[in-house]
């Protein structure tokens, strides 16, 4: 381990597929140790994971960090949003967690929106119009389909809450993650009693919302991790809010994140309330707002197309005639939870490389369609688009985003921005700084800037046309 200039902190990213841990020098931002361990997600109609896998993966990831983890003075957990974790009286999972990309609650989402005043009322009250990704719809689904699980539930948590509570023994969450539940009112920054009563969820089952900069607790005696008793535990937050912290994001700078899901977001001083439901009005982790649009199908869907074609993911060829909408898991933006993938324009001379490029185009089109809605009206459109996530270093992803956005694209060199953001939050507990300012001091957003190219309006128009014409087909679920 390199000699550290300042105290060490641990930042964690518990994502859909794995848990990653970084030990970071709070003074310089240098990553002095890291670890990662996978977990599994069910296939089929639902997307579920046993929360105990997340804890086991955290233990393994920190074990890989060696002695450095023992020296940490503070820790913070960043995690996948929206997941519904139900715990019994012993703090054990009642059933596997329902994850963000489990869209079985689409009927409940539609009903909740109708029953509680419609889209505009939801946007004004909670900042978002809930879709099937939101936790409140999952609770409604569980109450209808597994009432015995609801009766056995004594605590309801989000994924990052679950791990934080196992560290501290206290049920806590933060404004960034709780703003994605659908039962937190963004105007008053408190739990929404009307919504909770409507879905039959006792507010006593929910965690305390810890304020930015507040200590969530300290590491308790009984645990399997290398931390000392009394190590400070930060509030943690959802993955997108953590990545925004990790970038030291200032208002008006757009981010496009390419992971299992795709997201576009920007920090704003204005509380969002989009009645169309395209933009989720999330809070960020340090007192501002994080308007965000999310797609369910991004790198995983494109990689699946590459695998089906027997091609390397970079083996793309230019295309002008074929359109592929890679909605392999249904879709959230546009709101088509029952959709499947759709291919249009196939000819005898269409190549595999063209089909693959069409998959990239279809995935990026969904994200860029929401970008202008995410940004404030007075945002500077010449500011580079920050490209992050697992796909950000892929040349095909970079070139597709440049061509379809017409904007300069900056690719930060720092990796694991969710875990770095969590580490910055932990460092802020020790130094009293705004975690975003900590990340800017660490220079996490530094990276090459790819110049803007002319926007490919023809491809954008072609995809939009196919999407519009195929709407009735896409709205029809293919599930048996």
From TrEMBL:
Keywords: ATP-binding, Carbohydrate metabolism, Kinase, Nucleotide-binding, Transferase, Xylose metabolism
Domain Carbohydrate kinase FGGY N-terminal, first and last residues per copy: 9-246
Documented EC number(s): 2.7.1.17
Alphabetical list of CDD domains matching this protein: ASKHA_NBD_FGGY_BaXK-like
Catalysis performed (reactions): D-xylulose + ATP = D-xylulose 5-phosphate + ADP + H(+)
Enzyme class (EC, first level): transferase
Residues annotated as domain Carbohydrate kinase FGGY C-terminal: 309-427
Site, Important for activity: residue positions: 13
Binding-site positions, substrate: 81-82
UniProt-annotated catalytic positions: 239
Record NCBIfam families: XylB
Stored HAMAP family: XylB
Function: Catalyzes the phosphorylation of D-xylulose to D-xylulose 5-phosphate.
Record family assignment: Belongs to the FGGY kinase family.
Protein name in UniProt: Xylulose kinase
Protein source organism: Streptomyces longisporus
Gene responsible for this protein: xylB
